[in-house]
Write a structure and sequence with these properties.
The chain is mainly α. It contains 18 helices and 5 strands. It has a 3-stranded antiparallel sheet with strand order 4-1-5. A two-stranded antiparallel sheet has the order 2-3.
Length: 434
């Protein structure tokens, strides 16, 4: 007789051990890469007075500086070599994807498969260098014109040399982060860019929580308000998890066919469609567009034209116009980016080629129209969900002056990135052996 231990040894897939060992190496690589990315956030750019910089940043942290500082893990507030973070690369990648719709040449490259995608990625890198240099040079010029509370300049020795060195240093830091992100994607687990942004946001959470508790200790916030805020954050996190995992599963059937003496087919599967196909792209774009005037006004220190002052007043955090435009831009990019990412015609053609069909819907054009109808309704729900998650914390922060990092965009990243990372780990561990 065969013992239970022998039966277990016979049925056990020993390839899982090898996969676990490889997965462990990949996870350690991810940890090491993220540590390097965090260490660079503490290497300062030469020629800047740190005390004056801290005063200036505290005064202007409510604009786009605050959001970019969150994405850079505090590197912008300390003005380090990673001050720009990986945001220029993200912005360049998004712009390149959007240009594939407007440019026939890029659209043709996209259809070429892996080789075309490599060329598109190369264009994204070129765009990253350009954006990072423009932003870095703008930051250098802005710093030269900014002064602390006692009129002391933030730059020790202003001039052309400082501007060029600062811009080149920031470009180098962004490109190094981009390279680390690509290495994580290739040699680690998950999307490297998302993991770097996630690590930067999480790195600032302890300080933010401590600042909130300090407001409670000094009496600026009551205990009831702090508990209510904590309950709201937990509720929003649960709501984000629910919506990010929510799917509309469309039943796809395959007809039976006879092969020799056997009847093959007759199976069915599901076509999963997410409620939020656009991810965190709409909030990032909306925040960047709306906070740009605040950043320009902050650098000018009230010396700009009067119309710019009026715009910044109406577009302040928590203002009705800001909330309305925020929701409108998020909704627009939800539909635009979903249409860019998902093509119902391609899905309908693939189903038709594979012999699949949706019950009650004719293959081909009718299937594409039905999928477009379903996706439109799902995108409406997704836009409402993103608008609520992003606008509600803005109102909360504006009314209660809470120094908390988890705004709408940050919360989406903090919740969705670990979910995707866990899914990647599971798929890597349980993938069939080749």
């Amino acid at each position: 007789m065969v013992s239970a231990a022998e039966r277990l040894a016979q049925n056990f897939d020993f390839s899982v051990i090898g996969k676990a060992t490889e997965l462990k190496k990949r996870l350690w690589f991810v940890v090491g890469a993220l540590i390097i990315a965090r260490l660079g956030a503490y290497i300062p750019i030469p020629g800047i007075d740190p005390q004056v910089l801290a005063e200036i940043f505290k005064r202007h942290a409510g604009g786009a500086l605050g959001m970019f500082n969150m994405f850079s893990g505090g590197a912008l507030g300390r003005m380090t070599i990673f001050a720009l973070g990986i945001v220029p690369y993200v912005t360049s990648s998004i712009i390149t994807q959007l240009m594939t719709v407007a440019s026939p040449q890029l659209a043709a490259l996209k259809k070429e498969g892996a080789s075309g995608q490599r060329k598109i990625n190369q264009y994204s890198r070129y765009g990253t260098v350009l954006l990072a240099f423009i932003q870095g040079y703008g930051i250098a010029v802005g710093l030269e014109g900014m002064h602390g509370d006692h009129g002391i300049s933030a730059v020790i020795d202003p001039g052309v040399f400082f501007r060029v060195v600062t811009a080149m240093t920031l470009v180098g830091g962004t490109m190094f982060l981009m390279w680390i992100g690509e290495q994580i994607t290739a040699r680690g687990v998950g999307n490297g860019t998302s993991l770097i942004i996630f690590a930067n946001i999480v790195a600032g959470l302890p300080v933010a929580v401590g600042s909130t508790l300090e407001l409670g200790r000094t009496g600026a916030l009551s205990t009831e308000v702090i508990l209510l805020i904590g309950a709201m954050v937990i509720g929003l996190v649960g709501f984000v998890v629910l919506m990010e995992r929510a799917q509309r599963r469309i039943l796809v059937q395959y007809p039976k066919r006879q092969v020799g003496m056997k009847i093959m087919g007759g199976d069915s599967s599901h076509l999963p469609l997410k409620f939020n196909m656009a991810g965190v792209i709409p909030p990032i774009f909306a925040s960047s567009i709306l906070l740009f005037p605040l950043t320009i006004a902050g650098f000018n220190q009230g010396k700009g034209p009067s119309w710019l002052t009026n715009v910044t007043a109406y577009l302040g955090h928590g203002q009705p116009l800001y909330i309305v435009l925020y929701v409108a831009i998020i909704s627009f990019f939800c539909f635009f980016y979903t249409a860019l990412q998902y093509n119902p015609n391609d899905t309908a053609d693939n189903l038709k080629k594979g012999g699949g069909f949706i019950a009650g819907i004719r293959p081909g054009k009718n299937t594409a129209e039905y999928l477009d109808y379903v996706i439109t309704r799902l995108t409406v729900i997704g836009a409402i969900y993103l608008s609520f998650v992003c606008a509600f914390p803005e109102i909360l922060i504006a009314n209660y002056k809470i120094p908390f990092n988890l705004g709408g965009t940050g919360m989406l990243i903090v919740v969705s990135v670990p979910m995707d990372f866990i899914a990647q780990v599971q798929s890597h561990l349980f993938a069939p052996s080749v």
